[in-house]
Task: inverse folding
């Protein structure tokens, strides 16, 4: 929802903290996901993710969440799908070039990033969107990646 | 000015080690000259002469011409098509690539095709939204954004790879550009966004119309603080406004263009508004060239292309230098004889 989305970005710092607590819990549950099978967990998990993030961020389920690098403003709501900052068309009042009555996703995101501990992630260049991931759970992907990295470092140290 | 290793018209320059391209624009900029580029409006026709006629008005005054890619989301002759015609006679076009109309497969194909035809400069843009143009019902593509587009083309050039990782046997040797708009909010993020573009591969920057000098100076000062000015050539955009009415219309209807009230008032108060518009443009060029980090100007004189020569001439920025055009060297030799 548009008004919720704006409210969330105004409290980007709090949402960053919440996610930073949430992510380790998901990672801790790696054995559970493994037991169920990531493939089978995918469907219910993406449904839950869509419900939560849809409400809060107007999430578009791109499957490769970048909210931590965009000031908690979902960049897939930008009509140009920009992942790296505002285009040159932003109106003087900070509204979108395409939707004149809506705030620019990135004007809000830039403000949000300044409220975040790791807000400077907004300065990193983002990779192009992988459209084959669309609709999949970004959470599971992150957990899988982190767990894989952990296992690899453990194997290396042994 | 003739380079000592000046090639025949249409041939590339010899490759210099610190240059990315074998093109004229990069040569001029790296040699420390104040460069002039201009916007070449594409015709709504399939007649090559229409392109040559439009290019010819800039002869002797510009180092590069931007072949626009459906600018303003309006349909015209393609950027690749114009570049094919222009390189054929030796011009140095800047091929604009917009993310609005093509996905990554088509874009990378065009980069190779353009480079094969002798395009040495490419400008990576996001592109205006389709709502701005004459086909608002079109599907906006935006598969890449300008940043990932820059990284993609740089990867093709430096790593000899497509985005997929597949090898390119002969890489496109191109000088990479990007756009910047210091005049749109959020102002304090704009220098950081330029930093991102440089990190993604931009070697030169052309800006949107620059009418607000204090704002531009602030942008350049912040960019200097970020250490960007040694890494990139900045060419601010300028252009004559035909009248106060046109300027007001542009301000209200074209995305991303900011024209301060003072400029519009100055136009409105003039007897000959068109002449005054050109004078404002000249004054701006002269002010801009004094700003640290400005390497040239990009002239966008939509529907006033024939005025560019006089504007550049009267601004004095070329210091007597005559940029290349077909037949220039023969004429210079004749004069000397």
Result:
């Amino acid at each position: 929802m548009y008004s919720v989305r704006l409210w969330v970005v105004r409290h980007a710092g709090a949402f960053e903290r919440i996610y930073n607590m949430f992510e380790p819990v998901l990672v801790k549950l790696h054995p559970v996901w493994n037991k169920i099978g990531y493939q089978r967990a995918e469907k219910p998990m993406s449904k839950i993710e869509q419900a939560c993030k849809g409400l809060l961020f107007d999430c578009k389920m791109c499957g490769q969440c970048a909210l931590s690098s965009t000031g908690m403003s979902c960049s897939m709501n930008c009509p140009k799908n920009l992942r790296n900052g505002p285009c040159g068309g932003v109106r003087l009042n900070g509204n979108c070039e395409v939707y004149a009555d809506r705030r620019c996703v990135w004007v809000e995101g830039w403000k949000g990033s300044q409220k975040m501990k790791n807000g400077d992630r907004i300065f990193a260049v983002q990779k192009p969107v992988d459209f084959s991931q669309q609709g999949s759970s970004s959470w599971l992907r992150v957990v899988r990646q982190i767990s894989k990295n952990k296992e690899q470092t453990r194997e290396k140290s042994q | 000015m003739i380079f000592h290793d000046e090639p025949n018209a249409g041939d590339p320059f010899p490759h210099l080690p610190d240059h990315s391209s074998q093109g004229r624009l990069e040569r001029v900029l790296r040699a420390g000259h104040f460069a002039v580029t201009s916007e070449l409006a594409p015709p709504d026709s399939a007649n090559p002469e229409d392109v040559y006629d439009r290019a010819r008005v800039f002869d002797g005054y510009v180092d590069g011409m931007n072949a626009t890619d459906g600018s303003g989301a309006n349909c015209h002759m393609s950027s690749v098509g114009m570049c094919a015609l222009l390189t054929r006679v030796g011009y140095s076009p800047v091929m604009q690539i917009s993310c609005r109309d093509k996905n990554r497969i088509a874009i990378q194909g065009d980069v190779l095709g353009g480079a094969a035809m002798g395009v040495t400069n490419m400008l990576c843009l996001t592109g205006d939204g389709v709502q701005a143009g004459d086909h608002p019902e079109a599907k906006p593509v935006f598969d890449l954004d300008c940043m990932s587009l820059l990284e993609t083309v740089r990867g093709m050039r430096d790593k000899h790879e497509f985005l997929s990782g597949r090898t390119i046997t002969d890489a496109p040797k191109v000088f990479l550009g990007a756009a910047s708009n210091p005049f749109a909010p959020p102002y304090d993020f704009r220098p950081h966004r330029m930093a991102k573009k440089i990190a993604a591969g931009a070697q030169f920057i052309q800006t949107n119309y620059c009418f607000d000098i204090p704002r531009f100076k602030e942008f350049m000062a912040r960019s200097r603080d970020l250490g960007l000015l040694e890494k990139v050539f900045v060419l601010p955009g300028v252009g004559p406004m035909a009248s106060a009415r046109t300027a007001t219309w542009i301000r209200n209807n074209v995305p991303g263009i900011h024209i301060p009230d003072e400029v519009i008032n100055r136009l409105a108060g003039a007897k000959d508004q068109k002449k005054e518009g050109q004078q404002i443009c000249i004054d701006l060029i002269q002010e801009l060239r004094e700003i640290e980090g400005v390497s040239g100007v990009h002239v966008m004189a939509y529907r006033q292309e024939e005025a560019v020569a006089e504007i550049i001439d009267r601004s004095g920025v070329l210091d007597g230098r005559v940029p290349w055009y077909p037949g220039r060297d023969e004429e210079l030799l004749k004069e000397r004889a």
Notes: The CA atoms of residues 84 and 117 of chain B lie 6 Å apart.
